[in-house]
Amino acid sequence: MTFAIETKDLSCRVGRAFQVSQLDMHVPQRSVYGFLGPNGAGKTTTIRLLLGLLKPNAGRITVLGRAMPDEYAAVLARTGYVPERPHVYPSLSIAEAMRLHSSFYPTWDQRWATDLMAQFQLDVTRRVGALSKGEAGKLLMLLALAQRPDLLVLDEPTDGLDPVVRRDILAAVLQFVTDHEATVLISSHLVHELERICDWIGLMDAGKLVAEMPMQDFKNGIKRLRVAAAPDNLGTAPFTLLSRERNGSVEQWLVRGWAPGMHEYLASVGASVREVVDLDLEEGFVELLRSARQRAR
Amino acid sequence: MFRAIAATQWKSTRTTALLAAVAAFSLPIAALQAARGVENAQMFINIVQGWSAGYALLAAGAGLLLALAAWGPDHQGRHVYALSLPISRSRYAMLRFGAGALFIGPIALALFFGALTVIATGAIPQGLHAYPFALTLRFLFAALVAYAIFFAIGAATTRTAAVILGAIGALLFAQFLLYTLDVDFNLLERVGELIFGNPGILSVFSGRWTLIDV
């Protein structure tokens, strides 16, 4: 598998209190990678590191086959970026912002930009500083998409937007992914939003990547089990036990990689499964976070 | 690319540039108005010369304001937009610098036309000559020097700004120490000479800013 983004032992201290540490991240090429994590987990810092906006203290970053931050200009020429907060100069009109932006990207597709303008119902004469949050979000998405990037990096692109605008923006991303064989990295703490569009997820918490897996595995493989008579030592279990909590004689387990045939394995170690609960994505996300925090303690 | 940058910079600069151009055009005319009716050539020169600080101040002020306006939009967005553009940071800084420097041109031109207007009035006493071109060149150069210095300071990090302020503070403190220890050495004056005297970095400001001379 080739990766559009790959980091190895990436660490960066931001201020005194926070750091991204030993991040090993793998974003497969042509995937839509959902970058999940609670607020303050380090998603934005990581994205800034990936794009060369911040310099790492240690570790290696490769984006689109090039070393970052050394080759940032070449990487940014092929990357569309939608930051957390609008970054386009507020004194410009939308038309001026488009003119400025397009002058930096030889791949700029004016026809598509015009189509997106109509689709997003943006008025070119409006001043960027006077746009609503939703309109600003649409403009940033337009600017990122019309440059026809090989990699699209979206940092909480729909945070705080109403459902209609959110749907418009995600539809544009989906259309882009369908039309081009590009890679998308989209960060969010809105789990359900990513469920529809992502095929990979990475979960970040307290500056660490605590899980990274295909969305399918995340959706299907994480279960909550109620297990009775479980031994302390499970030996080589065919699944990953993320957490276990004792509740009287019955334990509650969170497991990854669960398959129905694994009942037999548990029976072989003297345990019996009372209940298998399918977790929806949000529950899975919460449980993964909780187990990661328990392991960290 | 440069045109696009210049166009965006024009939006944040135009008011400053326009006001500075009006001031530059008016300065020579105001100097002439002050000396109008004076027959004595030396006195005429002295009066006109009295306005020379105005040219230096205008050049410094225009340089400062244009430099602030050049970085203004980027500071507002915490430089995220500029940093995410696919060009080297040094090239981006050069584009911004060039775009800002461009707007010094119209201000200098306004000064030149102001000086030409003074000449056209024919109110200069016999035996004296006007030097509109030399004055404009000096103004242009001084404004560029001021712009470059403030542009560099404006681009610097908070730490660099603190270092600059710290250096100024250290200088003042050293002068205070010399004074309290009764040492007969004026450090500030010496540093001033180094900076403003020839060939100091700001010597262009301290030379003769004269439109009318013998």
Notable features of this structure?
heterodimer, A: about 300 residues, alpha/beta, Rossmann fold, 10 helices, B: about 210 residues, mainly alpha, two-stranded antiparallel sheet, about 0% strand
Model description:
- The complex is a heterodimer of chains A (about 300) and B (about 210).
- Chain A is of the alpha/beta class and about 300 residues long.
- Chain A has helices at about 45-50, 70-75, 95-100, 110-120, 135-145, 165-180, 190-195, 215-220, 265-270, 280-295; strands at about 5-15, 20-25, 25-30, 30-35, 60-65, 65-70, 80, 150-155, 185-190, 200-205, 210-215, 225-230, 240-245, 250-255, 270-280.
- Chain A has two domains: about 5-215, P-loop containing nucleotide triphosphate hydrolases (Rossmann fold, 3-Layer(aba) Sandwich); about 225-280, no CATH class.
- Chain A contains ten helices and 15 strands.
- Chain A has a six-stranded mixed beta sheet with strand order 7-8-9-4-10-11, sandwiched between helices. In chain A, strands 1, 2, 3, 5 and 6 form a five-stranded antiparallel beta sheet that branches.
- Chain B has about 210 residues and is mainly alpha-helical.
- Chain B has two domains: about 1-155, no CATH class; about 155-205, no CATH class.
- Chain B has helices at about 1-35, 40-50, 50-75, 80-85, 90-100, 105-120, 130-155, 160-180, 185-195, 205; strands at about 130, 210-214.
- In chain B, strands 1-2 form a two-stranded antiparallel sheet.
- In chain B, helix 5 (about 90-100) runs antiparallel to helix 7 (about 130-155) and helix 6 packs antiparallel against helix 7 (about 130-155).
- Chain B is flat, with a radius of gyration of 21 Å.
- The chains are: A alpha/beta (about 300), B mainly alpha (about 210).
- The interface of A and B includes residues 78 and 92 of A.
